[in-house]
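Figure-free illustration: sequence to structure, shown twice.
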Amino acid sequence: MAEGLTGWRLHVGAIFPTPVPPRPIREWYQVVPEGIDVTTVSLSIQQLTDDNMEEALKGMERAAKQLANFDVDVVYQSGVPPIVARGTPGFANELQDRLEQACGLPCITDMAGVVDAMHSREIRTVAMATPFRQFINDRLVKYLANEQITVTHNRALGIERNTEIRRLPIPVEYQTARQAFLEAPGRPDGIYIPCGGWGSMHNIEPLEQDLDTTVVTWMNAMIWASMRRCKVAGPIHRFGKLLASL
């Protein structure tokens, strides 16, 4: 574990695809127990286009090495669009191995963390809500299918620029996810919400209570996977079933 005042229980190094939005950092410290800290580094994505995503992939190993210099215990790569852009089944695990070789630390990719979280909750079917353009949703649907997770219905807001995603009011995430779940054929096992530029951890519990379901987001998966990988235990309440299961 990291020594000193920073992350005396767990110190997570997070690779963000864009400059870090202030809200997730604020919410991180509202959610995690005392002694769990996060240090971030940002990549170069300005808009969700294939050239931007490919450029981000090229910078991830350098970013992991940079975080290793700050005494983090684990490196978490945040952001699923670059992972699914390659169209390669299992690429999240391949990238995970590459990052570990680069920095010498345990590494978790966003997509791998999400899939592990879903499997742990026995989620096999999901409704998905994103601010992305539809072609990214389509890639996510295909990638998750290779992990034995079926997206039965998805909604995409069709936004390309990250600055526009960040302008979305927090309730839009709740409303989009709720609509995707209610429109899905049958009853999905859960809801999946990627993207750190919109929404809030505070939307998880209302969605779970109102729809009697389980919600996996980019951020609760990040906290859950990092704590499990580094053997930091203890349920976190008020932010959904996944974190309560720790």
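We now fold a second protein in the same way, so the two outputs can be compared directly.
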Amino acid sequence: MDNLTHAALGIAAGIAVHRRGGSVSAAAVAALLAAEAPDLDVFIRAADDPLVAFRWHRHFTHSFVFMPVLALAAAWLTTWLFCWRRKPQAGTRAEKNPVLLYAIGSWLASWDFHRRHNVGWRELFMPGLAGALTHLLCDGCTSYGTMLLWPFTETRYAWDCLPIIDLAATLPLLVLAIMAWRRHSPRLAAYGLLWFGAYAAIGVTQQARAEKSLRAWLDSQGIKPVRLAVKPTVSNLIVWRAVWLHEGRWHVAAVRNVPFTPTRLVVGETRAAWTPASVGNPPPFSEGSHLIADFSRFTGGWNAYDRTDGAILVGDIRFAMLPTSSRPLWSVRCAPGGTLADTTLIMDRSLRDGDWGRLGALLSGSDPRFIELE
């Protein structure tokens, strides 16, 4: 999920569980830091590994086992920051410390204007733990896949009920989280968490309905998909991206699912599925072959196949810029040599002329290609 949502969830969770009589600001900051900390994995880099971002994003930092580490680090850092909340006296060691740290500490303390007392890391551990937990569960609701049970398994869990960015989920939560902080109100924080939980529950219901309708339509067409998935699209719970595998090809479609109205479908593009026997694959045991195998583990086998300029493109069919597009958001390009120099990661976020209009027509229901499923 986006970092603004993580921040709002963390703040709300920290305030909701903070120790009675303790510092609301300290609890909110500890939970905020812990809620953002898992995404520090984006800084893991390796110049000789084009797939490093896929290997490590939502890896061990997003596991339940690692949560106490994040909570402890956030609690300690918050305690350290809050030691600057009082103006240092002349001639003391505190006076010699950077002005920025004092300014940060003073600003944080100003949000806790009702109380002026010391905080310790022990009372901030639980808010930190709550903040880290919100990050993991929130990411689990999206489609990317999160290693929640690492190191026991490297399975990426994805519940497919929320998009990465959804203003309808985030903005009410953010408003309630800020109000809870300013008013020192665990009740408002709980309302924010309940709102987000209710929105996710609606997403679960919408996704299940879209998948059920799609399966019924495929069955009526005599199509028995080998694999099928229904995933959310950006900032809404109305239009869903459907992907299924049939007779060696991936098919995509947009499923429009408005409550209390019939489900509607627009059939989109198709693309060949990649297999180990696909024409143009790199030599066995080559670096390119290993990278494609690693990419396939990340995608869970949802691999599309294409050829361009003598090279092959192995793409993740689950994600594209449009619900009806078979053009993967990310692919591995491998030339026949199969060396590391022949293998690159391609990110395709480009939009063609008219794509915004096509997306708007899918969301509004005005696309003439819609067919009714129910």
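Summary for the second example: The beta strands are 227-232, 239-246, 249-256, 264-272, 303-308, 311-316, 330-334, 343-347, 371-372.
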